[in-house]
# Entry
Amino acid sequence: MKRVPILLCALGVFCGPVLGAGSTAGKPNVLIILADDQGWGDLSVNGNTNLATPHVDSLASAGTVFDRFYVCPVCSPTRAELLTGRYHPRSGVFNVTTGGERMDLAEKTIADTFKAAGYATGAFGKWHNGMQYPYHPRGRGFDEFYGFCSGHWGDYFDAPLEHNGRLITGDGFIADDLANHAMRFIEQHRKQPFFCYVPFNLPHTPAQVPDRFFKKFADFTPTMRYREPQREDIVKTRAILAMCENVDWNVGRLLQKLDALKLAENTIVIYFSDNGPNSLRWNGGMKGHKGTVDEGGVRAPFFIRWPGRIPAGAKVSQIAGAIDLLPTLADLAGIPVVSTKPLDGVSLKPLLLGSSQNQNWPDRMIFSHWAGKVSVRTQTHRFVVPNQLFDMVADPGQYQNIAKAQPEVAARLSGAVEKWKKELLTGLGEQNWPFTVGYRELPITQLPARDGIPHGNVRRSSKAPNCSYFINWASADDRITWDIEVATAGKYEAVVYYTCPKADVGSVIELGFNDSRVEATVSAAHDPPLHGQEHDRCPREGESLVKDFKPMRLGVMDLKPGRGELTLRALKVPGKTVMDVRLILLTLLK
# Structure
C-alpha cells in the first residue's frame, strides 16, 4: 500500500496509508460539533477567563487551530455552507424561518458524499435547513436524525423533538439529550466508518441551563467585558457563560466516548460555531456580533483533531471558512465529492498536513452576507459595503476606516463585492418553493405554524415564527393556510396539534386541499398552562413561550399530486375562539 514520503513523517504530519476511494477499510470517522451563537471569545482557550472550557480547549492543544475562520452572520446560512461547500445564496438560503432556510434540492451535501463512500451518517441537534422531506435531514444524506428542524425552541427541558420524522418528547436538558443520542450512534457504528454531525442549539436563547451549571455564575461579575462595557447585559452574560460550560461538558462526554471505544485515533473531530456572539460580551475586542458582517459577527473558533495525522498544537494563520469543510474532509478521508456543482470552498489539507508557513498558499477572498449586508475578508483587510476598509493586521478592532487612505485597495475589494453580489444575490429570495408533502421515504410531514400564513384575526404567539403557534382564531372568516405540493397520490391521515379552553369546546373545523375535505368537531378541552419561563435565566428576546399541544385526529384525506393551499378554517364557532394551533401532521398511509 502506497505511503507518503518520509520527509512528511519527519515533520510530524500524516504518516498513515493513503487510502483509495473504493474501500471504507481504514477510513477515518468524522465527528463535527457545532455550537449555536457562541462567539470566538466564549472559550477559555481564546483568553476568556470568565469561564472554563477544558474539553474544547483540549481539541486546540491536541489538534490544529485555524486562527481566522469565517462563518455567516446567522445560523441557517452557515449550516448550508458547511453542508454544501458553497456560499449559502447559491443554495437559495435567504432567511432563518418560514421556508427561507431551505436549500435547493439540486444541492448535494457533505452527508451525501460520506454516505456514498459507505459511511453511516447521523445528525443530532438543530438542523435549521428544512423540515419537510426531502429538505429534511433524511433527504439530505443522513441515515438518522434526532433533534429539531426549526431555528430555535421555546423550552430546553423535555423538549418536543423528532426522531426520523416521528414526534417524541426529549429526555431532560436538550444538549445532554442530543449528546446521549450522538454517543449511542457512535457506539452502534463503532465497527464501520461513521459521519456524526452534532449541531447543538446552545448558547442560543432562550437562556436556559441546568442548575449545576448556572450556580457558578448566578452572582458572578465578569472581569472580561465587551469593548463598550456600559452596553453589556451582565445578567445575560452570566447565563450564556453557563450555557457554554454545558456545551463544553457535553463535548467532553463525546470525546470520552471515542476514548472508551478506542476510536479517538481514527476519528477526525471538528469544533466550531455558526456565527458571532448573540449578545454584547467579551469577544477579543472585535467589532460586531451575531447578524453583522464585521469581524466579530463572522469569525468563529475552529479546532480540528486527528491524532497522529494532524499536528498537535499547530496554528494556521491563513483565512478559511465553513465553505471549506466539505472539500477538506472528503480530501482527508480520501473519498470523492459527489456534488457536480462547483464548490466555493477549497481543501485545507495542504495547510493541515504540511508546514503551513512554507506553503505557497494563494491569496483568497471570503465573502460574508446577510440581509443585504456584505463584506469581504482577505488575509490582511476587511471591506464592508458601502465603503469601509479596515487593515485587520494593524487595526483588528476595526476602529479606523482607511478607504480614503488606500483607495486602490478599497476599489479592488469593492469591485469584487459588486461582482459577487451580482452573481449570487440576484433573485435571492424570489424563488417560490412550496412546502413538500407525501414522500414514501419519510411519510410523516410536519406543517408547523412557522410555515403557515394567518388570515383574518389569526396571529402568531410571538414575532419570531420559529417556535410560534397560532392564536386568536375567533371566527368563521378566519383561516390558516399552508402552500404545499403533494408528491404522491394517496390517503393521508390528518392530525392537528391544538389547545382549547373548556368554554370554547364545540367548534367544527375543516381541513381542505383542492377538492379533498375533512371535518371534525373540537369535542375535548385541552387548556394547559404556558411554560418555559420557569427555566429562563434572563428575560427572553422574542422566543415564544410554549404549551403542551394535544393531537386531534381530523380524518383521512384523499390527496392527488399537485400544488395548492392547504386550508384550515372553522364552519361553526360557538365560543370566543376555535383553538390555538401548533402544527398539522399529514401521514401518507400505506
